[in-house]
Amino acid sequence: MQLKKRCQPWWLLALFAYASAGCTAAYQGKVNDAEVHLVDYFQRSAGAPALIENMDALGIDHAYVMGLPVIKKWDLSQPKAPRFVYGDDAPVYYYSHTDELIAREVESLPKTQQSRLHPFLSGFNTTDLNAAEYLERELTFRPNFWQGIGEIITRHDHLTALTSGEKPRANHPALNKVYQLAAKHDLPVLLHANITSQRENEPLYLNELKEALQQHPDTRFLWAHAGTTSTLTRHLDMNFLYQTVTSLLSEHDNLYILASWSLIDVVMPQGTLDRRWVSLIEAYPERFMVGSDVVGTFGYQKTALKTWDPVLSALPKHIAQKVAYSNMLAVLPQAGKNVSH
User: Fold this and answer.
1) Is the pLDDT of residue 8 over 50?
2) Average pLDDT over every residue of 83-105
3) Number of domains in the chain
4) Looking at the domain assignment, is residue 130 inside a domain?
5) Which of 65, 127, 184, 241 is a plausible cystine mate for 166, CB 3.0–4.6 Å?
6) Within a domain: residue 38?
7) CA-to-CA distance for 93 and 177, rounded, in angstroms?
8) pLDDT over 70 at 340, yes or no
9) Pfam families, from UniProt (predicted)?
C-alpha cells in the first residue's frame, strides 16, 4: 500500500521525461472540460454545485454537461444491488428522464454559474424512429437551454451487449433524423461510435461513421474518444487509428475529435507520446478538444484532464490553448458562444 501511494501517475512521469529531454515547457494554460456526465449509470449524482466547486478548485471555466441515456437495472436474480454498470449481467435500458435530471441540476445554480455549464440532451433510444420528435419537444419546452445533443451511445462493446433490444449504430435511420434536427438547431452532436470490435485490429465499423458524416455535412460531430474504449485498447494496439482519423479529418470538415478517456492509450502507448498525433493536431488545430468523461462524481476530473498535459505541452502554445480551452466553445450554438471567459 505504501508503494502504491508513492508511485506517480504515468502521465506525470511522461511529462517529467518530456521536459527533461529539453522539449517545450509544460502547458500552463487553462483547460475546459468537454465531457462531464452529471449522473452515473444509476442516474445518481454528486450534484451540479459539487461540480462547480470542483471546477473552481481546478480553474475550469466551462464544461459540457450531460446525463447518460441508459440506466442499470437491479434484476430480481441478483441478491445485491449492482454497484457498477458491468457488475453483473443484468441489462441497461433507455432512460429519458436523465435530461430532466440534468436540467434541474443546472437550473438550481445561480445564473452566473449556469452560464459555465453547457447542457446536452442524451435521454433517448437511438434506434427509435420517433427519437427526433422527442428531442424537438424538449428543445421547445426549454428554448435556448440545450446546447448540444449527446453523448449518443452507439457501438460500445460491453455496454451495447447489456442494452436491451435493437443494437444502435452511427448510421441508423433513427439517428439520421436526429442529425438533421441538430443541424436545424445548430447543435453539435457528441457521438460515441466504436471504430472496431475487440476481436478486429482494423476499422471494422468505419463505414457507419463515414456514412453519417457524408449524409449530414451541416451537422458538427464530436467523436468521443475517436472510437476507442478501454476494452479495445486493452485487447488491441489500434495502430490503424492514426491513419483512420487523419483520413476522416481530411475528408470531413464537420468532424471533431473529443480527446478523452481511452484515446490517450493510443496517443501515448505505454506512456510514450506518438509524435504523429501532435503533428495531426497541429494540422487541424480547431478540430480537437479535451474532456474528462467523469461520471456522476467529479473527484477524478483533475486526473482525467491531466492525462493530456504531455500532449498539450508538445504543441505550440496557441494551438494548445485552442485544444484545451477555446475549441469546445467554438462549436457551440451562438447562444452558448456568448459566454464570459
Assistant:
1) no
2) 96
3) 1
4) yes
5) 127
6) yes
7) 21
8) no
9) Amidohydro_2
